[in-house]
Design a protein that fits this description.
With 309 residues, the protein is α/β, with parallel strands linked by helices. Helix content is 36%, strand content 18%. Helix 1 links the parallel strand 3 and strand 4. Helix 1 crosses helix 11, helix 3 packs across helix 4 and helix 6 packs across helix 7. The protein is globular.
Length: 309
Amino acid sequence: MADHVSRHPFRAERLAVRGQQLQVLHWGDPAEATDAAPLTVMVHGWMDVAASYQFLVDALRAQPGWGTRPLLALDWRGFGGSYLASGPAPDGDYAYVDYLADLDALLDRVSPGRPGNLIGHSMGGNVVMLYAGARPGRIRRLVNLEGVGLPVTAPEEAPRRLAAWLDGLKAPVALKDYDSVAAVAARLRQNNPRLTSERAQWLAGHWAHEAGGRWHINADPAHKRPGPHLYRLEEVLATWRAITAPTLVVEGAETAVYQFFNGRHTRDDFLQRVAVLKNATHRVLPDAGHMLHHDQPEQLAAWLAEFLG
C-alpha cells in the first residue's frame, strides 16, 4: 500500500537467526555506527510489529544530530515479517528465553564489538530489561517503554499453569480476520482511540496481510495460548539489579495496561521494581496511553534524543 505517512521509509531485511528468518527494518546502515552515534535497536510488544516504531523514527529524525543515525527494529519470532517468513512455532510455544537468545544473536550480527542503545515497548520492554541484566556490557543506554512486567506468581501455581499449557496445546486457536485493510485500521483505532486514522491506515498494511480475499493479522495464533512458565519476581529483580547501563523508564500518563491484570499487578508494584535499578530515570508522558510511541512520538523522541545523547 502507499506509504502516505512515513517521511523516512525503512528497508526490510530477513536474517537467518537461530533457525528462524527474522525480519529487521533498517533506517540507515548499521555498518555506519560509531562510538558517538551507535546503533539503536528497537523491539516491539505483544501482538505488535516492528513497523509500529515508524512514527517515532520520523520524530527522531527531526531531532538535532539524529538525521542519519542508524536505527533498526526487529520483528520478534512469530510476529510481523518474521512470522510471514518462518511460519508458526513448530512446537506451538513461545518463551522469553527464545526472545533473549534471538536478540543476542541479532546484536552479534548487526553490532559486533560495540555497545548500542536498546529500546523496548511493553513485552519488548520486559525482554530488554532482562537482556540488559544478562549482557550488561552490550548495552550503552537502555529504554523501557511501558514494560511493566507481570503479576507475581507462587510455586503452588505451577501444576495448574502446566495443566493449562498442556490443554492449550491440544486446543485449536485462531485470530480474527477482516474483510478489508480499512477494517484492520478500525480495529487498531478501537484498541487505541488516540491513533489517527491516517496512521492507523498505514500501520494496518504492516500489521496484516491479504490472502484469499481476507486480511489476516501477521502473528502466530499460538501467542494466545497460556505459557508454562511462572513469573519469578525474585529472578527478575536480580537480573534488573545487574543492569549497568543508564536506563530510561517511560510510562504513558493515561495507560490502561494495569487493567488487564485485574488487581494482581498495580502501578505501585511496578514502581517498587523500578526502585531496584542502579541508574534509572523515570518519566511519565502526558496525554499518552500504553501505545505512547503512537500517541506522542514527537515528545517521546525529544526525551530519547536527550537521554541517548
